[in-house]
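S.,

As promised, the 2-(butylsulfanyl)adenosine run. Input:
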Amino acid sequence: MTNSVKDTILKLREQITLHNIHYHTHDSPIITDAEYDRKIQQLRELEQQNPQFDTPDSPSHKVGGTVLDTFSKVKHEIPMLSLGNVFSSEELSDFIERLNNRLNSTTEPLFCVEPKLDGLAISLLYQQGILFRAATRGDGNVGEDVTHNVKTIRNIPHILKGDNVPDTIEIRGEVVMPIAAFNTYNEKATQKGEKNFANPRNAAAGSLRQLDSKITAKRPLAFYCYGIGLLKKGILPNSHYQRLQLLKQWGLPLTNEIEITTGIKGCMDYYQFMLENRNTLPYEIDGTVYKVDDIALQQQLGFISRAPRWATAHKFPAQEEQTVLLNVEFQVGRTGAITPVAILEPVFVGGVTISRASLHNQDEIERLGLKIGDTVVVRRAADVIPQVTRTLPVKNRQSKAIIFPVLCPVCNSEIERFEDEAVARCSGGLYCAAQRKEAIQYFCSRKAMNIDGLGEKVVDLLVDENLINTPADLFNLKTEQLVDLERMGPKKAENLIQALINCKQTTLAKFILSLGIREVGEATAKNLAEFFLTLDALKQADTEKLLEVDDVGEIVAKHVVYFFRQTHNLKVIDALLQAGIQWPTIAAKEKQSLPLVGKTYVLTGTLTQMKRAAAKEALQALGAKVSGSVSAKTDCVVAGESAGSKLSKAQELNIPIIDEDGLVDLLASFKAH
Ligand code: IVH
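Predicted complex:
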């Protein structure tokens, strides 16, 4: 029994040491953080339960990094330690209780609460206010000299400003690659066929550990400080929070989310807020940090082997987990797009169990170097669809190549892929049941023909039962054919037939939209209707004519022409018109005479007197363009309640701004004319 515990401990130590090298030395982890944390946790528990096997050299007591030989070494006069972790409110409560017991005080200490940035710890040594040396944490005692690289980071001051800067001060903080910059970097790397970084932290670490600082200079890194190390000939406040504010005065960057709070409730509220808002931050965070604010109390509490007793990290649930790719299925979409879908061994990540994830297209499979049987990383950030982000070099099963099909898995038509498109498509058009289903669903959808009671399930049933082949067949359905369908019944069947009658009175714009022409969304359908006025005129339009329409470019024009060239589409349109679909004639607008022609408006904030869509329509009816973003070309911004960044941008650019009352007056003034 004990022998096997010892074996497990030794095995875990060996694995963790290996993973430390991959993570810290090569910036290229081969397991997810969550898996690593579990191994460390398991090792610590085993060592605590079996102290006879605990040894000081166990990786559970170490900070993690080792020093690369290629940089000169820097000894940290004050070791750069790590933080303990809590993962739940119970563990947090234990942490606070331990503190209170040790402090033996009846009053709750104040906590400085901070985001836990997911980057790379750095020490900046300033002498007489001048950046003298920058070093990585390394193993906590000895780091690497990365001064030449750190000097290329734009928000790190080379000289501290202010009169009371200490003679020697070591600033500690985190170097990160902001998320937007990370995404752009990876997109460009993909285009160039280069390797992507697994996550912003590896990107930051990899960028900082360049021997050629010209490379680092090209990587958009940022630094935020969270503490002070060495201090000589200087006086600092007795509060950690106030010390950070002082650093800010000297020109050092702080994150915007640092606060003071107290007690478990204060910390938990902060944690919850940060968890919910982590996606709005420019940098990746993997938790929060709580630090006893009073420096005297910090000194009283001191350290345990690798971390301070006066602080802890509170980690967020993992957004990344590893699992196995069991298979790849190929789905056929409305436009025939073939989407490979990863079938995964179910894994709990970001709060839900994931068993499928889109792989987007063939290029993505190649980029990931994916094979069936591979161990992969699944990432699910809050509100973001799950993604397979990378493969891990774990060879635990026989892997099998993924064969992209040449024939449509639904209708057996050939799959085509145009040279400049990433997407492969089934060439079967409405012959393909998958495309038929999707086309019919789209036709019925709220923004198109708005047919109540015709959701995905009913459409699937109707197509599978061969009751309909095209949207036009919907109008030949009889109540008797519907009642017996699964979960239908007489009442629903009748309602559906009535909805089909009601929808026949529509608008040309909605009808154009309902045809499901590729790249023709609501705005384009509206522009097409207003430009051509009749369906016949649109059907006959050539590319040149289509390019005259607002917001129609080469691609949209190509798809419109292609759509109306297909005889099967024309047949469906004729049948729909035969069924009685109609719309009011659109009167040709004297475009130039509309009062707001040539003017661009932007709506922002909350409107209380009218819906935003109604305001947009009213402005468009007067000839204005309504855009989603403010630029120098904007003529006026309508700012409703709680308007944010668009309003500030308009102010910056000196663009006229009106409030909702101003808009109401403006619209009324044109009505009066
Ligand atoms: S304080 C002695 N504050 O997390 C206390 N660390 O897991 C030292 N980190 O090595 C750290 N954000 O790289 C502190 N607001 C924050 C932090 C933070 C990120 C990193 C840092 C540290 C690691 C510990």
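The chain has a mean pLDDT of 90. The chain has five domains: 2-61, 73-315, 320-392, 428-578, 600-672.

- D.
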